[in-house]
Amino acid sequence: MSAIQAAWPSGTECIAKYNFHGTAEQDLPFCKGDVLTIVAVTKITREQAERLLYPPETGLFLVRESTNYPGDYTLCVSCDGKVEHYRIMYHASKLSIDEEVYFENLMQLVEHYTSDADGLCTRLIKPKVMEGTVAAQDEFYRSGWALNMKELKLLQTIGKGEFGDVMLGDYRGNKVAVKCIKNDATAQAFLAEASVMTQLRHSNLVQLLGVIVEEKGGLYIVTEYMAKGSLVDYLRSRGRSVLGGDCLLKFSLDVCEAMEYLEGNNFVHRDLAARNVLVSEDNVAKVSDFGLTKEASSTQDTGKLPVKWTAPEALREKKFSTKSDVWSFGILLWEIYSFGRVPYPRIPLKDVVPRVEKGYKMDAPDGCPPAVYEVMKNCWHLDAAMRPSFLQLREQLEHIKTHELHL
Ligand code: AMP
């Protein structure tokens, strides 16, 4: 059974009743029993449909739920540079465009107009595939996260990310950070990051403000501006002489609270590290970079993982969970208390995993309070089930704070 993703109203699955092999090469072949999986395109507007059918290609089509007649469908077809919208009427359990020919379901209707224009501007040739960028782009328009490029001023480059430059911007008089991407190939990963961010809101998570999708393919993710940059650079540049115990514990708690929130929402970050925590103008640490964040229990390619931060079971068996985030949090605590040192100093990278798997744990950073070191070590239980939850970690850190065990 083949699953074809096409631009159909959401929640609809059409089962093909007949075999249809197409008469020309570009025809969409349906086979009996094929399931056309309808991707999430609920009630898109006429304008959005026209955007989706751009650039013009005669015979390119999609079916959307009508905005004027809820419950009815509209067939949108590109023809000679224009998009025609045909209302599909639903009457007595049958569908029809011209009230002459009636169909049992959308699938039959599409089959009919694929083999013969029968009064339409053209026959249907190619369903608009709604995967990846285009679908995501439209998703942002519909969910209200799309911002207007005209209102954004890009001021200066402030960082380099995996996907492209990060710039300081001005959006309606507010300072914002803008991740810019001009390469279509990475746009999907970029949009995946943004779509995760739309679901999460916490004072210790870097807040998404919106997304800009340019006609010519440029993509921008706009987030709150974190004036003091990444935590690892912040720790390294200020160092021991500037940052006291209170400050280190405050950063630890800030991150822990964000992680407790993610834990409560069943999100696994997978790349928690001081380089992915940013510091605001008023010294609040916020977790950023949700590029790898996935809903709990999914698996991923272990090829590109930050070995020194990743739990052994995640490296070995791709077992990512909140508990593997807890392991990384332990490493992040070590980074904080060592003022941004690279973990496992003096151990060659290739030796880190074998040693860790045998139970090796880093020593406490110089001057690290024993109570904090205990918290770190608990995060590094080889048995993931033995590691504390973020809720427990937050309680432990708060206990240290109130009993001034950190000085
Ligand atoms: P990233 O692509 O998230 O790894 O970001 C690369 C670098 O850009 C970071 O290390 C920061 O220095 C900077 N950066 C990213 N996001 C922001 C932000 N929201 N505010 C300020 N600087 C940022």
What does this structure look like?
It is a single chain. 32% of the residues lie in helices and 21% in strands. With 407 residues, the chain is an alpha+beta fold. The strands form five sheets. The chain has a five-stranded mixed sheet with strand order 7-6-5-4-8, covered by helices on one side. A five-stranded antiparallel sheet has the order 9-10-11-13-12, with helices on one face. Strands 1-3-2 form a three-stranded mixed sheet, with no helix packed on it. The model is unreliable at 1-42 and 294-302 (pLDDT under 50). The structure holds adenosine monophosphate (AMP). Adenosine monophosphate binds next to strand 9.
Q: What is the overall number of helices?
A: 11
Find the count of extended strands (DSSP E, 2+ residues).
17
Molecular shape: elongated
Mean pLDDT: 82
Q: Which ions, cofactors or small ligands are bound in this entry?
A: adenosine monophosphate
Q: Low-confidence spans: pLDDT under 50, at least 5 residues?
A: 1-42, 294-302
How widely separated are the two ends?
A: 64 Å
Radius of gyration: 26 Å
Written as H for each helix and E for each strand, in order along the chain, the element string is EEEHEEEEHEHEEEHEEHHEEEEHHHHH
Q: What is the percentage of strand-forming residues? A: 15-25%
Q: Assign the structural class, choosing from mainly alpha, mainly beta, alpha/beta, alpha+beta, or little secondary structure.
A: alpha+beta
- Major sheet: size, sense and barrel closure? 5 strands, mixed
Q: Within the largest sheet, what's the order of strands?
A: 7-6-5-4-8
Helix content: 25-40%
